[in-house]
Design goal:
59% of the residues lie in helices and 0% in strands. It has 104 residues and is an all-alpha fold. The chain has a domain at 35-103. The longest helix has 57 residues, at 47-103.
């Protein structure tokens, strides 16, 4: 098992587990841990219902991760936009001051 595998199950083939501990794993990349027993609700499901139930859980994880990533991107874009705006204003002020000094 890799140093970043916090689970006691063997690694899934093709899933990198060398993520350092302390770095949060996106929900959509968490390992699917097989259950030892099913809940009463799951026992009453057909196989198709159980698969769809778990597909919905995984879909919700991907959606939550995607929404979080979009939010992070939008916040960072706003920071960059503000920085560019501040630089533009400063450049404009410097240009006006330089032009006024040249006229004196």
């Amino acid at each position: 098992m890799g140093s970043g595998n916090p689970f006691s199950v063997p690694p899934t083939p093709g899933v990198p587990l060398d993520i350092p501990l302390g770095i949060p794993i996106p929900l959509s990349q968490e390992l699917f841990v097989p259950t030892q027993e099913l809940s009463e609700t799951e026992l009453n499901m057909t196989v198709e219902e159980w698969v769809r139930y778990h597909m919905q859980i995984e879909y919700d994880k991907f959606k939550e991760d995607g929404e979080r990533e979009i939010d992070i991107f939008q916040k960072r874009a706003e920071q960059v936009r503000n920085t560019i705006g501040a630089l533009y204003c400063q450049l404009s002020r410097d240009r006006i001051n330089w032009q006024n000094k040249g006229r004196c």
